[in-house]
Amino acid sequence: MIPRGTLLLALTALPASVWAQTSVPVRALGSPLAKSADAFTNISSVRELSNGKVIVSDLVDKSVHLLDLAAGTSVQVGREGEGPGEYGFPGELLPLPGDTTLLVDRVNRRFLIILPDGKTGGTIPFPQNTFNDPRGIDRTGRIYFQGSMLGGGFTPGQPSPDSLPITRWDRRRNVTDTVTFLKVPSLNVNVSGGGGRGAVMFRMQPFSPEDGWSVGSDGRVGVARVVDYHVEWFSPARQRTAGPANKVTPVRVTEADKEAQRRQMASSPRMMVAVGGGGTSTRAAPAPAGAPSGGEPEYPEFKPPFPGRSTWVTPEGMLWVLRSRAATDPIPLTDVFDQRGNLVSQVKLPQDRRVVGFGNGVVYLAHTDSDDLQWLERYKR
Fold this sequence. Notes:
Elements: E1 26-28, E2 34-35, E3 43-48, E4 54-58, E5 63-68, E6 73-76, E7 79-80, E8 86-87, E9 90-95, E10 101-105, E11 110-114, E12 120-125, E13 133-137, E14 143-146, E15 163-170, E16 175-183, E17 187-194, E18 197-204, E19 212-215, E20 221-225, E21 230-234, E22 240-242, E23 251-252, H1 255-267, E24 271-275, E25 280-284, E26 302-303, E27 311-313, E28 319-322, E29 333-337, E30 343-348, E31 353-359, E32 362-368, E33 374-380
Parallel strand pairs: 1-30, 7-8
Antiparallel strand pairs: 2-33, 3-4, 4-5, 5-6, 9-10, 10-11, 11-12, 13-14, 14-15, 15-16, 17-18, 18-24, 19-20, 20-21, 21-22, 23-26, 24-25, 27-28, 28-29, 29-30, 31-32, 32-33
């Protein structure tokens, strides 16, 4: 376990001898089994229901839809807002038993219940006095969060912490415990305002190394450690199983990578934290006029082994990790680890696709076309 506040070694400080030499089978996905009839702007999450329909959230359009890929139909779920059946910033779709789903709504700091027929139910507020970021759920309904700087005594103008916890909230008993700690990316923090009021904008430094993680329905947490690229599993009782380190060929950051990063940052919504005036609130941007921009970020010489937020536990309990690749390489590659942390295979994704969810024997990919529209596709795994 990584102690809180421990500064992890830089990737360049690791001797070549720590990497395990591994040769595993590589396979490519076939043709898609189904494709959405309508396009999205930015698919953030997918939840497959037992009847084969899927719920899809779109971060930029701020919309949620129930899709029947076989029939080619789409029905909107709820709407943007702050009232009943509404959401401000639709994020992850967390599966509950019986095809009920929790939609993460970070702006309104709550979970919106989506019923099996696509209608909305009530809401569940985030745990009180926490800014931790909800990322997953197990079949018992315990919700898993990644720690936040705002919950760790962060002071603007001071260095951001280099490790944060994975916490687990048992909402029935209202008890929270810590699973493990993660290396988190370096952040560029900009503060505006004064006189007791202001805004704080957080922006992750591009290609900053960070641990990745995900949780399975059985409550097992898989963590990909970025420093020597190995996988650890934590059981529901927090017993740790660690696999070997894996060989990584460093991928250099090029001007093409920097330009792609600039385009992404220009089009992505930002999370702004307003401080003062009776409390602290979080909302989605675009940033208002006069808000801190942060200027051009600093770029490292090499990318980490895998990008941030690119780790998934499949329904069968395997861990998929997306590998970093050169800007000129159009084919995404994922590593697949077993429940002991061993690298057992690799999967090549079709060009211009990314993983957005899993289902019964299938994986869901978002395909970005030449117009920057995204289409949901279902593939057999």
